[in-house]
């Protein structure tokens, strides 16, 4: 651009795009600085599948209704109350108006996936997944005149008192600077910086896999925190799920998630169970398993199921390990065979009447006299062939971030920064103190992206 834009948006995922589109529609000249090359644009958003949405009746692909209080209760259960209620309720209430807005900006929806997800009432699924959503928004942004620079790595956001005066970035070996009226940070967490993860978690973090983009390294986040911008969240808290241990180090995405845990027993490298696999339906519990596995020796777990459970969950991207006996399965998985046999025998003995088994809802089919118990879907593992998966901790995004107010505005101490806003994963720690609720990251990004875009445009237009 020959002149500085009105607004610079740092990041290229859902939150950044919602902000850029909203600002452009308000008449602002917008530049997006996306660290990834074009083929990998979109941050973690390209790996997403759905958006959790409040609604008072059927809405788009969503059936029945999902009210504010039920939504908030679901959030409280997974966060253990560690949330900013005002911002959480703002995100929840605003989600209902987001769905038609998304449709009007090119996003298409499909009926929800069936099986262990059980989300037809609460989560709207994107037709073509997150990559399709990201591409739709980029098309919309282009029509609105938004300029996108790829491979644009922001190195410094310069603060002068209570305002941003300059954004420095590089493309290849070339350095650039822009001095916009407004800046929106939507560049995610720091999870792709393994050294930072290890500083927060300890050496165990080097065994973690990163489900999403390798470009979310927290460079802008660290730069702003170093300058005294108010932070929120715990660096050891993150959206971490148990994923297939054969997944790649980066960018494995949603397909590496395993949905078999409720119908299994999960053991550590010593073939010992360590948690209740049937505690709740999977969308409300899948996000705790990353931390559970992280606490085990070598940060690894192993799922054991039998033939009767194989078709009860979403198929895995890598086929399970298969064996005719438990001892053979143990050998293939590097587990002590006698100990696995004993663990399964103990579990089977604790199972009772299974006639009430129901795979898609809490069925109360539980063990008795077993520690830890299995409180639902507890059926003996007896039917050959037997199947196994290895589990590793897969980090989606970290919760340490920039603290914002209802207008998505950042501050230094008690003083708002007049022209700096944040949206998406980089501020999600304001609402997600711990735990995760399926589809809620997209809700936060969409709601606060739109708020940030509106506020940044109003500021730019006034100056």
UniProtKB/TrEMBL annotation:
Keywords: FAD, Flavoprotein, Oxidoreductase. GO terms for molecular function: oxidoreductase activity. Residues 6-433 form the FAD-dependent oxidoreductase 2 FAD-binding domain. InterPro entries: CobZ, FAD-dep_OxRdtase_2_FAD-bd, FAD-oxidoreductase_2, FAD/NAD-bd_sf, Succ_DH/fumarate_Rdtase_cat_sf. Its cofactor is FAD. It comes from the Bacteria. NCBIfam families: CobZ_N-term (TIGR02485), PRK08274.1 (NF006130). This is Tricarballylate dehydrogenase. It comes from Paracoccus homiensis. The lineage of its organism: Bacteria, Pseudomonadati, Pseudomonadota, Alphaproteobacteria, Rhodobacterales.
């Amino acid at each position: 651009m020959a002149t500085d834009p009105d607004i610079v948006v740092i990041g290229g995922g859902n939150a950044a795009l919602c902000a850029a589109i909203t600002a452009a529609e308000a008449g602002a000249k917008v530049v997006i600085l996306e660290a990834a090359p074009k083929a990998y644009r979109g941050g973690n958003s390209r790996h997403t599948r759905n958006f959790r949405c409040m609604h008072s009746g059927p809405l788009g692909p969503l059936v029945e209704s999902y009210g504010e209080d039920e939504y908030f209760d679901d959030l409280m259960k997974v966060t253990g109350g560690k949330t900013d209620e005002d911002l959480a309720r703002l995100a929840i209430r605003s989600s209902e108006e987001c769905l038609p807005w998304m449709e009007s900006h090119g996003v298409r929806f499909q009926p929800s996936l069936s099986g262990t997800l059980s989300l037809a009432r609460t989560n709207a699924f994107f037709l073509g997944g997150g990559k399709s959503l990201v591409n739709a928004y980029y098309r919309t942004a282009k029509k609105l005149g938004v300029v996108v620079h790829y491979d644009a790595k922001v190195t410094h956001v310069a603060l002068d008192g209570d305002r941003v005066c300059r954004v420095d970035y590089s493309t290849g070996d070339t350095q650039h600077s822009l001095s916009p009226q407004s800046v929106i940070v939507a560049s995610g967490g720091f999870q792709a910086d393994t050294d930072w993860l290890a500083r927060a978690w300890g050496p165990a973090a080097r065994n973690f896999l990163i489900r999403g983009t390798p470009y979310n390294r927290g460079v802008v986040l660290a730069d702003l925190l170093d300058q005294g911008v108010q932070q929120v969240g715990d660096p050891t808290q993150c959206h971490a799920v148990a994923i297939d241990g054969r997944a790649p180090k980066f960018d494995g995405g949603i397909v590496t998630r395993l949905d078999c845990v409720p119908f299994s027993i999960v053991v550590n490298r010593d073939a010992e169970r360590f948690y209740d696999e049937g505690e709740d339906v999977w969308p409300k519990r899948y996000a705790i398993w990353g931390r559970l596995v992280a606490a085990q020796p070598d940060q690894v777990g192993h799922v054991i199921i039998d033939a009767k459970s194989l078709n009860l969950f979403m198929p895995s991207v890598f086929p399970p390990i298969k064996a005719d006996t438990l001892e053979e399965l143990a050998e293939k998985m590097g587990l002590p065979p006698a100990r696995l046999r004993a663990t399964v025998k103990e579990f089977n003995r604790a199972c009772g009447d299974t006639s009430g088994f129901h795979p898609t809802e809490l069925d109360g089919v539980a063990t008795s006299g077993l520690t830890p118990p299995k409180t639902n879907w507890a059926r003996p593992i007896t039917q050959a062939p037997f199947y196994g998966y290895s589990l590793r901790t897969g980090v989606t995004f970290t919760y340490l971030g920039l603290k914002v107010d209802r207008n998505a505005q950042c501050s230094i101490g008690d003083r708002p920064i007049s022209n700096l806003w944040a949206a998406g994963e980089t501020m999600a720690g304001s609402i997600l103190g711990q735990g995760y609720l399926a589809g809620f990251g997209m809700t936060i990004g969409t709601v606060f992206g739109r708020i940030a875009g509106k506020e940044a445009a109003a500021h730019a237009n006034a100056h």
